């Protein structure tokens, strides 16, 4: 026991030294903190997974990653490891009575071992209902070398699905833009990170503004707007290789790219006629078709999940509101009927709700328009909240907000009950885009 | 008579010397006399700040040509009356100099969404461009680029700062 503790202490010191050595090279990571908790979060114990591989487990253990994922969803209240009465790794070792006394509703146990071929990791895990003493899940997730974090997020996804009925979105990614420095010295980066903010990687760096990243439905490419040529231009970049294609750089605005759900088309905003209009570009042929025509500002296209309609922002009635038009072109129809300023639509994966940046005076909040009931629900407190982006399972909305004079990212649960804040240690973080389910 | 003639001669010599010397030189220190190049003196007519065909007025703070930022009301793209004379001055310059080219950079404050603000910045640039065209500038001399809210001059979230950021900047690419 004493030796075990000494070993663990030594390991922690080593781990800390390792982190320090990395600190100079690794980019500042996002930190997550719950702003408003959910009192009805489910008590769950994610018991430390038994490490059966050679050497020591990584610093961020599988059980920690899983517990953090479940915690920030707002729906779960994971027990601290030091509060656990014991650490069973097999079903026979679970003393259900003890866990029940500790008011734990669910328990997750597991092991990590090297697969038979010697490559990567096998995560064996089981989920139990403590009160019914019943096994709800028993699975093996296999990932390649270096993908243990991803494997842990996969475990979180299936636990989330088993307990909520909705597939998890923890193994997805986010893209966002950072701006550091001021005035002429500002440096912009387009960054891709895991959905929990870990592993940020800059995929574009520029002295000129970057904005509006949008994922392809296969999660392999990002479309974005760059001012590197002195005017706005749209690029599509392969996330893994960095290879990119200039899609549009005509006179006027080239903005707001959005891939169609099948990935074959890209909706975009062009002002080559003199004012911004919505166009749809066929990615295979490069042919571009204008789908709306009006002297007002028409921009920020967003596809309906079935690909039949394009929602967009227009100020044709005086102030910005959300409209929709058939994807092949036609007569636009106004969608949002309340509020003085509604813009930048993000459509829920089931197609029933539209998240927008809603302005009232100088306050901007994220609000959700229910298409069927024709009502808004305001989800965030403001006062500079914008760029909503639905998680691919619809459970949360990522958005940009301001804290003092700098931009930060936050996520809010779809019902508004839980908010988490993702903080980058320096610079201005904005323009978040939640990826589809990938890999 | 003779002495009067001598005085006249003496005066003439003195005046001739005086006329030849542009600067008085310390004659009693011959060691420091150096061969100096003659001082260049430019002469030009007085600069009329209201002459908007004269490129010298770009740097003359008295002239409207030295003013190259137009400010706007929130969510509006109308060129306000107080800024029309500035636009007209630059339009007159464009009309007088066919080789002159300018970029009209449209900007918005941080309120509202970034892509909508790109549209708003462009609308402001177009408003200035339209007014210049009506005053004699040619469309081919002007290029509108919108930066939306991406290039603020001021980063505080208050009305004073927002007012500074809602603007069109006239940037000459050729004079």
Describe the secondary-structure layout.
The complex is a heterodimer of chains A (439) and B (175).
Chain A: H1 2-23, E1 31-36, E2 42-46, E3 50-51, H2 62-72, E4 76-78, H3 96-101, E5 106-113, E6 121-129, E7 134-143, H4 148-164, E8 173-180, E9 187-194, E10 201-206, E11 210-215, E12 221-226, E13 233-238, E14 244-248, E15 254-259, E16 265-270, E17 277-282, E18 288-290, E19 298-303, E20 309-314, E21 321-326, E22 333-334, E23 341-347, E24 353-360, E25 363-370, E26 375-378, E27 386-390, E28 396-403, E29 406-413, E30 419-423, E31 428-434
Chain B: H1 2-20, E1 69-71, H2 84-96, E2 101-107, H3 114-134, E3 142-148, H4 159-165, E4 167-174
Parallel strand pairs in B: 2-3
Antiparallel strand pairs in B: 1-4, 2-4
Give structural notes:
The complex is a heterodimer of chains A (439) and B (175). Chain A is built from four helices and 31 strands. Chain A has two domains: 127 residues, Rossmann fold (3-Layer(aba) Sandwich); 259 residues, TolB, C-terminal domain (Neuraminidase), CATH 2.120.10. Chain A has 439 residues and is mainly beta. Chain B has a domain of 120 residues: 2-Layer Sandwich (60s Ribosomal Protein L30, Chain: A), CATH 3.30.1330.60. Chain B is of the alpha+beta class. Chain B contains four helices and four strands, in the order αβαβαβαβ. The radius of gyration of chain B is 28 Å and the shape is elongated. Classes of the chains: A mainly beta (439), B alpha+beta (175). At the A-B interface, β23 of A face α3 and β3 of B.
CA-atom Rg of chain B in angstroms: 28 Å
Q: Could you describe the largest sheet of chain A, including whether it forms a barrel?
A: 6 strands, mixed
**Span between termini of chain B:** 68 Å
Number of helices of chain B: 4
Spatial extent as radius of gyration of chain A? 23 Å
Portion in beta strands of chain A: 35-45%
Q: What fraction, in percent, of the residue positions of chain B are helical? A: 25-40%
Anisotropy-based shape of chain A? globular
CATH topology of the largest domain in chain A: Neuraminidase
What proportion of the residues of chain A is helical, as a percent range?
A: 10-25%
At the first level of CATH, what is the class of the domain at 55-174 in chain B? Alpha Beta
CATH-defined topology of the domain at 55-174 in chain B = 60s Ribosomal Protein L30, Chain: A
Q: Strand fraction band of chain B?
A: 5-15%
């Amino acid at each position: 026991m004493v030796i075990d503790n000494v070993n663990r202490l030594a390991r922690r010191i080593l781990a800390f030294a390792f982190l320090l050595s990395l600190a100079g090279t690794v980019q500042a990571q996002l930190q997550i903190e719950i702003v408003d908790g959910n009192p009805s979060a489910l008590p769950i114990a994610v018991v430390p997974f038994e490490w059966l591989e050679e050497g020591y487990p990584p610093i961020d253990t599988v059980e920690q990653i899983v517990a953090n994922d479940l915690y920030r969803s707002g729906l779960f209240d994971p027990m601290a490891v030091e509060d656990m009465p014991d650490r069973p790794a097999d079903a026979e070792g679970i003393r259900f009575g003890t866990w029940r006394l500790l008011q734990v509703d669910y328990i997750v146990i597991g092991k990590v071992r090297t697969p038979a071929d010697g490559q990567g990791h096998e995560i064996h895990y089981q989920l139990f209902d403590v009160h019914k003493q019943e096994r709800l899940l028993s699975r093996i997730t296999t990932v390649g070398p270096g993908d243990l974090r991803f494997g842990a997020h996969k475990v979180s996804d299936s636990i989330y699905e088993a307990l909520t009925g909705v597939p998890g979105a923890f193994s997805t990614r986010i893209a966002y833009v950072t701006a550091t420095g001021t005035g002429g010295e500002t440096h912009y980066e387009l960054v891709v990170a895991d959905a929990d903010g870990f592993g940020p990687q800059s995929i574009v760096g520029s002295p000129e503004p970057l904005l509006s990243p949008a994922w392809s439905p296969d999660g392999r490419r990002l479309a974005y707007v760059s001012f590197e040529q002195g005017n706005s231009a749209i690029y599509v970049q392969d996330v893994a290789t960095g290879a990119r294609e200039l899609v549009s750089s005509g006179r006027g605005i080239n903005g707001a790219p959005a891939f169609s759900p099948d990935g074959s088309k890209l909706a975009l905003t062009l002002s080559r006629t003199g004012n911004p209009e919505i166009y749809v570009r066929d990615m295979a042929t490069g042919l571009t078709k204008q789908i709306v025509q009006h002297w007002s500002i028409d921009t920020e296209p967003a596809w309906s999940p079935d690909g039949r309609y394009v929602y967009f922002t227009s100020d044709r009635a005086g102030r910005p509101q959300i409209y929709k038009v058939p994807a092949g072109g036609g007569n636009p129809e106004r969608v949002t009927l309340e509020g003085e300023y509604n813009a930048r639509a993000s459509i829920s994966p089931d197609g029933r709700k539209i998240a927008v940046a809603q302005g009232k005076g100088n306050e901007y909040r994220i609000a959700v328009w229910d298409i069927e009931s024709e009502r808004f629900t305001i989800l965030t407190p403001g006062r500079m909240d914008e760029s909503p982006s639905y998680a691919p399972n619809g459970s949360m909305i990522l958005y940009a907000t301001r804290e003092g004079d700098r931009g930060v990212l936050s996520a809010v649960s779809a019902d508004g009950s839980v908010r988490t804040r993702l903080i980058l240690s320096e610079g201005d973080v904005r323009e978040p885009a939640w990826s589809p389910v990938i890999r | 008579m003779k002495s009067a003639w001598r005085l006249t001669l003496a005066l003439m010599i003195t005046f001739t010397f005086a006329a030849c010397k542009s600067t008085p030189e310390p004659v009693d220190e011959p060691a420091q006399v150096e061969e100096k190049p003659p001082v260049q003196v430019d002469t030009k007519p007085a600069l009329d700040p209201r002459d908007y065909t004269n490129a010298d007025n770009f740097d003359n703070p008295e002239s409207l040509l030295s003013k190259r930022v137009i400010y706007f009301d929130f969510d509006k793209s109308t060129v306000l009356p107080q800024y029309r004379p500035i636009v007209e001055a630059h339009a007159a310059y464009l009309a007088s100099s066919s080789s002159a080219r300018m970029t009209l950079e449209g900007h918005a404050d941080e309120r509202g969404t970034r892509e909508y603000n790109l549209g708003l910045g462009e609308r402001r640039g177009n408003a200035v461009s339209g007014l210049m065209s009506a005053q004699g500038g040619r469309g081919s001399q002007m290029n509108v680029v919108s930066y939306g809210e991406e290039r603020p001059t001021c980063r505080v979230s208050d009305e004073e700062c927002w007012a500074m950021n809602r603007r069109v900047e006239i940037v000459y690419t050729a004079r």
